[in-house]
Amino acid sequence: GSITNTTSKSLKVTVNYDVVGPCNYTDTYTVKITLRPGETRTSSNSYTAPACPGDYIITASATSGGTVLDVKSTTVTVQ
């Protein structure tokens, strides 16, 4: 994914990732970054798929100073 600071000020951004799936699977992790004005950051991560087959929903929430900037979700199917 990528995130862009469209403001004229530096932003401290926290991105929280939540993963929910079958067999009571849950996982969370957080990334904290500082973006300069106009800066775009791109990142990707690889993880081993859980053993339980089914659909896993990954939600990323970006916040800055207590304000929600954006929320995106995607579904990954494990077979």
Can you tell me about this structure?
This protein is mainly beta and 79 residues long. Helix content is 0%, strand content 65%. It is built from no helices and six strands. The chain has strands at residues 2-4, 11-21, 25-35, 40-42, 54-64, 67-78. The strands form two sheets. The chain has a four-stranded antiparallel β-sheet with strand order 3-2-5-6, with no helix packed on it. A hairpin with a 2-residue loop joins β5 and β6. The radius of gyration is 15 Å and the shape is elongated. It starts with a strand and ends with a strand.
Instruction: Give the biggest sheet.
Output: 4 strands, antiparallel
Distance, first to last CA: 24 Å
Order of helices and strands: EEEEEE
- What structural category arises from helix and sheet content? mainly beta
Helix content: under 10%
Number of strands: 6
Q: Globular, elongated, flat, extended or rod-shaped: what is the shape?
A: elongated
Q: How large is the radius of gyration?
A: 15 Å
- Would you identify the regions where 5 or more consecutive residues have pLDDT less than 50? none
Number of continuous helical runs: 0
Oligomeric grouping of the chains: single chain
Order of strands in the sheet with the most strands?
3-2-5-6
Write down the overall mean pLDDT. 94
Portion in beta strands: over 45%
